[in-house]
Amino acid sequence: MEGDLQRTLGRNLRAYREERGLSQEAFAQVLGVHRTYMGGVERGERNLTLRSIERIAVQLKLDPLDLLK
Known about the structure:
- This protein is an all-alpha fold.
- 70% of the residues lie in helices and 0% in strands.
- The protein is built from 5 helices and no strands.
- It starts with a helix and ends with a helix.
- The relative contact order is 0.21.
């Protein structure tokens, strides 16, 4: 149960990123973070702030809630 939301967000982020044809490295560069950090987010290992979720959603042109569903 613990960490389920982080893993869900990570899976959704990866799916939306790949759907848009972006590599993990390219998307990390757009966000101004390191590729290994993005990998941790996509694996559900990172606990993001709401502000970070918003920033990611804006870059993907999504409602932030879409990343959490």
